[in-house]
Queue: 4 jobs
Job 1
Amino acid sequence: MNLGTVIKDIRKQKGHTQTEFASLCGITQTYLSQIENNSKEPNLSTLKEISSCLDIPLPILFFLSLNEDDISPEKRKAFEIINPSVKSLVNEFFRV
């Protein structure tokens, strides 16, 4: 799961600097940097605040951060088939 990378990419797409976005979320820039580099796992309340500030539902952030290793082997083929379409739909709907 690449949650930090997804947060970073969406933050940048929305035109926020790390410093201003951290302030908007009520966390430090250092902590946001650690989250975005996947070196720290934020708690649920922090993730809810981040998703709110990105204007993206938390389950959508989780889905966008999934990679093949997160999916059980017997379901990977289905994931490979639906993942591009779902991501495209999410990107269109949420302007990610």
Job 2
Amino acid sequence: MASLGRKNQSLSRSKQSSDSILSRVSDSSIVRKGKSTACDAAYVAKRLMKSTGKAAWIVATSFIVLGLPLIIEMDREAQLNELELQQASLLGTTAPQPSFMGPSS
């Protein structure tokens, strides 16, 4: 029993000394500056991710509204040109060449 009492006393002494060391370390200016810097970095990262998410949403919806119909229409135009070429080859005539500058006179 006496040995248990001594162990408890030594544990309580070491616990008290470690608490005082821990409290002194946690109250130091370096730890406070580190905590402040970590909080600032977390705040900046949160704001950056929030604004990045908003930008990604804007880009994605703009593509769906503007880009996707353009891609579909270009695909339809390519299919139509391909169909005209097939019909022309079956009939034995030359297919009209697409002119990007308009009709030439």
Job 3
Amino acid sequence: MAEESGEKSHDATPHRRQQAREQGQVAYSQDLGSAALLLVGVLVLSYYGYGVIDHVMLFMERQLSTGGGSLVTDDRELIVISDSVLKTFGVGMLPILGVMTVAGALSTVLQIGLLFVPDKIQPDLSRLSPLAGLKRIFSLQGVVKLGFGMIKILIVCAVAATVIQGRWNELVYASELDLPDLARLLIDVIFATALWVGATLFALALLDYGFQKWKFEQDLMMTHQEIREEMKNMQGDPQIIARRRQIQRQMALNRIGDKVPKADVVVTNPTELAIAIQYDPETMAAPVVVAKGAGVIAQRIRKLALENNIPVVERKPLAQLLYKEVDVNRPIPDQSYGAVAEVLAYVYQLKGKKMPALRTA
């Protein structure tokens, strides 16, 4: 009933997955990239940022003071000093920004791999429609996304409040600290809060990616009719394929009809396989497999053998070996000489003839 109603009950085929990827349809979570970028940025800043801040503060202290210890008051000199401070700060931040850029790129590549879709670069004017935007906002997916966003905000606020609560006593007595110590305390609290918030967002983003992956797989699932249409497009019409196979089978049967009557013996398995063997010591160096087949063709070979008074001998291991290892119109291999000679000797004995000696192929 599911197949008749068109329900998507089959996993996506590799061809369907490839088509979806070429169209830019992949499992991707924007939250995972943002959370990874935030978490890596906080970790790098907590490890490397203090050195940058101390370096900039020391540089500012030196630049803003004259040799006698008085502050610089000239506007032009202040502009020059500020420019130097910004350059120093910028150079110090380059490694941090570089690591964050690499982390952002990796978060995308690890999710979807290397993918370039030119169609996605082109502007889509339909997305500028206010009506389409309202439909996206008030759709089921939009409502779910909004709800998840609200829950995420509440969780982040709870985590931040918990971290600050743990450092509350330090913050209460912060007014008694000197300005440098106060600044360092505030920076510690900010980094600790940002680190826990980043870790929380990353965990929530992993859940979001899992949901996006599940939804992507559900959207890719196919109906029975879609699978049939795909097979038809890739391999051709099943009726044409069946007709082609029927013609090939008929041609094989016609060839068998010419070859089997000339054989000396037919070796069977006993019903699944049939191999027709011919041996003419004057023209052949070794016995030759003139016809072989399984199923319907094997039945045809046995029928022709009986109609032409050709002995049918049951030898299961020999039939399996010849069917698997020897092509039609090819001599039998050396390792099968003994078994084939035994069969031929039995056949010649039935006919009252002397068995000719087998020569090496």
Job 4
Amino acid sequence: MLKTILGTALALTATLTSQTALASSACTYTNLYQEMQQADPSSYAKIKAQADATVNGEGIFWRVSHEDDAHVSYIFGTMHKSDPRITTLAKNVETALLSSKTYAGELDWETTAYEMGLIMGKNPEMMFQQNGEKLSDQLDPHTVEVVDQLLNQRGSDFDQIDPMQPWLSASLLANSLCDIENGVSEFSFLDRVLEIKAREADLKVVGLETVEQQFRAINAIDETFFLKSLEDAAIQHEQGIFDDVLQTASELYVSEEIGAMLPLMMHYSHTLKDGEADLLSFQRELLDIRNEGMVEKAVALHEEGPSFIAVGALHLIGETGLVEGFRNAGYAVERVELQR
């Protein structure tokens, strides 16, 4: 079920994924959320109700201001994808970025490769299983076989992920065939595009987190969550909807219906249920706790001057998200309509 991927896994994704051009027919999918509205209206209504109840569940672009400040800052929700609809910036988003003094992403990508190298050297257990343990020992043989088929479609195979920690293995299945056709590269996804533009404009570039902090957050999540995510991937592949689920998430991002993303993923999960310990562990470690640190650093950056804060869109929503975090710190935060 893991469809939100930390950007740090993209470098490995690019390494393990074949860059051979796919036929255009590979990028075919069904928008499951739209289809559900007609085919399964009760499920659609349930997901929409959950989305509507999500604080700040709509919108990816927000203006931050304070009556005592002469400047404003912006919060922008990203998706770690190379889809041109996602990476092509709205006019007012680019204007806001270039009018800022500081750009803050989740990571400073100029140092990410170096940090990953240090972790692999000093703390390999964060990424790879130890003492000869393998992922295939933790999954049933049929799941291994089907996940191998998914990886084969993406230019890889199960042998390559077998020694990895479950979180990293699950993350490497976060790209649909459409994503691969668009090109999987550490330079092509939205967060990297934003950082490159910021550097070209001589903005100060900082990361709200380090790679090690992200890895430690992921390793704190119950690994059962990621094993179940791989099981879900196998089941969805056999149902013929694996790429549909991934692409529907992208469609929800493009339409700014962020609050519907997790409910939709849960609807198509066969192994995870709301309120289960492993799912709660995922939400707490990957979203709630990290949001707290991001808000603290983002507020400090705004106090220094106009800043452009870009983080994964799921970090914006909910009571612990960055939008509410700024409001709780005394700032006015208003949604800005995108100028396409």
